Amino acid sequence: MRHRIAGRLIVAVGLTLAVGLGVGAWVAVRSLEGQVLGEVQSGGERLSDTVKRSLRYAMMHDDREGLAETVRTLAAGQDVAGLRIFNKDGRVQFASDPAVLGNRVPTTDDACKGCHGRGAPVASLDPADRTTIYNDAHGRRLFTRIEPIYNERDCSNAACHVHDEGQKILGVMDLTLSLAPFDAELQNFRTASLASALVLTLLIALVILGFVHRFVTRRIRALLKGMARVSGGDLEHPIPAMGDDEFGDVAAEFNRMTRSLSEARGHLLHSEKLAVVGRLAAGVAHEINNPLTGVMLIASNLRDATDPSDPRRADLDTISREALRCREIVKGLLDFSRQTPPQRKPARLEAAIDKVLQVLRPQARKLGVEIVEVGDDLPEIEMDAAQVQQVFLNLLVNAMDAMPSGGTITIARRRVDDGKAVEIDVADSGTGIPSDQLHHIFEPFFTTKEGKGTGLGLSISWGIAEAHGGSLSARSEPGCGSTFTLRLPVRAAARETGFGT
């Protein structure tokens, strides 16, 4: 089963958000609950004090009816669940619920556990410890506040009823508040927090989904489409530019890789073609050479035996000339098929070029061709000097043939790749090569010279460059001349390659 990146990312981020938001919501709820309970406690203290003050007048005048009515009135207030007043024996004297009047409340009652559960009398408890939160039999949460009713000076000296001065506590007032409104508020807050977390998680998931689709999924699909095209053999299919991020780098590198593969495939196909042609040429040359020599010999003998005025003498001259041309082609085939691995030794390219120029300069001057050398001094490289001279000879002869009316040949030398390789340009100002023919010029027997040349010179030169671990390339524009570039490594990294036998 395939797992999408977007799905994995959404699940990972969703879980992280759920945990983070859940912890944050729990902390917020706990904090709010603490604040609410603090407010309830403060409000309970204030309300309890207010109730006790409201009852003081009736107590001081022993107005039991007024006291009972006041208790019922106060208990009818909002959120007040009950109000009771106990005497010192724990018996209910006044209550908002008439049913409990006169009952003695046991110390195990939920409302009494706050004091008696601590094992200390109510008078000795800190005011903050006089509150209790518990659940009643119906499951409601209740807040109880107890307030001791002290034996004040006015009580012990009053004419209506006198209490012993040694009696410290006359009774206890028990005020109970319902926490239902606060619990509802907390529940609403919990629900809102959960809904907010879910909505936020959903929004972030949608944003991530859109982002992944826009910046990841579409680009991966483009890469996969390009890979599929390349695996199908289409090395010319480029991947569109993808920006300046990592995907852009991958696309650019992928395009560079396909270009390199295309060039490597072209070189491989060309090498295989040369190898096949070389083997074929070797066999054909050996088969043609002997009968061709016989034809030339017979034609020459017949010509010598024919009277100069005989009209057949011109035909015999044509036979001899064309046979000689065929012999030159056969010689080129043999040279092409017998390419041998280069015998590399340290040598200077300038010396190889100079030896070729010594042979060609007289002919160049006759044709009105000027040869100019420019560029850097090159280091010694390991090469087969004779084979490299053959390359320059072919390039310079082709350049002169491209300028029958004269022109300029420029030989430019330079170091490249931080000195790891050298390049030599042979540029002419001739007629140039049509663009539809440029990619065929290194193929055997292909020539742009009508009726002249065998079409093997550039193929042989290309093979020599490859055997040296270098390359031979060409660029041209019709009417502006052609430039051939020979690239050779400074250190030998060549293949031991040969064609034919």
Write a brief structural summary:
The chain has helices spanning 5-60, 64-75, 113-116, 153-157, 180-231, 246-305, 312-337, 349-367, 385-401, 435-438, 457-467, and strands at residues 80-87, 92-95, 131-135, 141-150, 169-178, 345-347, 369-375, 381-383, 407-416, 421-428, 471-477, 481-489.
Give a verbal description of the structure.
- With 501 residues, the chain is α+β, with helices and mostly antiparallel strands.
- Among the domains are: 41-185, PAS domain (Beta-Lactamase); 234-264; 344-501, Heat Shock Protein 90 (2-Layer Sandwich).
- Helices cover 53% and strands 17% of the residues.
- The protein contains eleven helices and twelve strands.
- It has helices spanning 5-60, 64-75, 113-116, 153-157, 180-231, 246-305, 312-337, 349-367, 385-401, 435-438, 457-467; strands spanning 80-87, 92-95, 131-135, 141-150, 169-178, 345-347, 369-375, 381-383, 407-416, 421-428, 471-477, 481-489.
- A five-stranded antiparallel sheet has the order 2-1-5-4-3. A five-stranded mixed sheet has the order 7-9-10-12-11.
- Helix 5 packs parallel to helix 6 (246-305), helix 8 packs parallel to helix 9 (385-401) and helix 9 (385-401) runs antiparallel to helix 11 (457-467).
- The radius of gyration is 55 Å and the shape is rod-shaped.
- 21% of the residues are buried.
